[in-house]
């Protein structure tokens, strides 16, 4: 039940997230519709609705970059972070789609600007448009009284893999399943630059390093190595 006493729960959720929620009247069947001025407002409202109902439910998501997607909305918690998921090719959904809500200790971890840079690097390494995925950090519901911040991450179509990569990295830093307590330092220590093997040009060494880093899932390191490669090529021209 999302309505609450005299609609108090819906009103509180709308005030908290700035989203608009249209729910069926008590006792009537029908979908709950959530719309908002931006992606964050809708994701936060859906996250709160999922927690209020404490159950997964089928839903339809309308994205600017894709046709309507049939997805599943899940309740999230300190140890469960998948908010939405849709698998491409299931007979109903034309594109993959995933969204996460990840709690993070307030004084630690990457900022929203850091997340944006991580997404740009991951999208560049994957060869997909940066706008296909999105991430930000906000105060959890309750504002200054909340114990945690929350990371919202989503990707659609080719951006799904980018969103998954960013989530995996943030979850590792946050200690997924550990209540959101950060266990990793931020920013992570830089990998020392290795000398190129004998007889290998610096540009080729950088290219090999980029390939190895991408295959290992170290997307930021791969992007840095590719930048070094292009700089080396330009300097030798």
Walkthrough of the structure:
This protein is α+β, with helices and mostly antiparallel strands. The chain has 3 domains: 1-54, 2-Layer Sandwich (Ribosomal Protein S8, Chain: A, domain 1), CATH 3.30.1370.10; 56-189, no CATH class; 202-236. Helices cover 37% and strands 19% of the residues. The strands form 2 sheets. Strands 3-4-5-6-8-7 form a 6-stranded antiparallel sheet, sandwiched between helices. Helix 1 packs antiparallel against helix 2, helix 3 crosses helix 4 (159-174) and helix 3 (112-126) crosses helix 6 (219-236). The longest helix is centred in the C-terminal third of the chain and has 18 residues, at 219-236. Residues 1-6 and 176-189 have low confidence and may be disordered.
Distance, first to last CA: 66 Å
- Strands of the biggest beta sheet: in what spatial order? 3-4-5-6-8-7
Beta-strand content estimate: 15-25%
Number of domains: 3
Top keywords for this entry?
Ribosomal Protein S8, Chain: A, domain 1; alpha+beta; six-stranded antiparallel β-sheet; 237 residues; two-stranded antiparallel sheet
Summarize the topology.
Layout: H1 8-17, E1 20-22, E2 33-35, H2 39-53, E3 57-61, E4 69-73, E5 82-86, E6 97-105, H3 112-126, E7 133-139, E8 148-156, H4 159-174, H5 202-215, H6 219-236
Antiparallel strand pairs: 1-2, 3-4, 4-5, 5-6, 6-8, 7-8
Helix pairs in contact: 1-2, 3-4, 3-6, 5-6
């Amino acid at each position: 039940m999302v309505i609450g006493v005299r609609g108090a729960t819906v009103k509180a959720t709308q005030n908290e997230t700035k989203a608009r929620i249209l729910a069926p009247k008590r006792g009537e069947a029908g979908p709950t519709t959530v719309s908002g001025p931006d992606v964050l407002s809708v994701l936060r409202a859906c996250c709160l609705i999922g927690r209020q109902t404490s159950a997964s439910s089928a839903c339809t998501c309308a994205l600017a970059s894709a046709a309507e997607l049939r997805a599943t909305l899940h309740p999230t918690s300190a140890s469960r972070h998948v908010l939405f998921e849709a698998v491409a090719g299931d007979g109903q959904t034309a594109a993959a789609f995933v969204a996460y809500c990840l709690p993070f200790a307030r004084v630690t971890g990457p900022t929203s600007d850091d997340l944006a840079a991580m997404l740009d690097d991951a999208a560049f390494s994957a060869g997909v448009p940066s706008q296909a995925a999105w991430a930000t950090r906000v105060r959890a519901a309750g504002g200054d009284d909340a114990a945690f911040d929350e990371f919202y991450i989503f990707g659609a179509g080719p951006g799904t893999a980018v969103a998954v990569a960013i989530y995996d990295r943030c979850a590792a830093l946050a200690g997924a399943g550990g209540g959101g307590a950060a266990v990793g330092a931020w920013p992570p220590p830089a990998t020392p630059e290795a000398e190129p093997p004998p007889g290998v040009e610096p540009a080729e060494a950088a290219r090999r390093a980029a390939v190895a880093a991408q295959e290992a899932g170290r997307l930021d390191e791969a992007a840095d190595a590719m930048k070094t490669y292009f700089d080396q090529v330009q300097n030798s021209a």
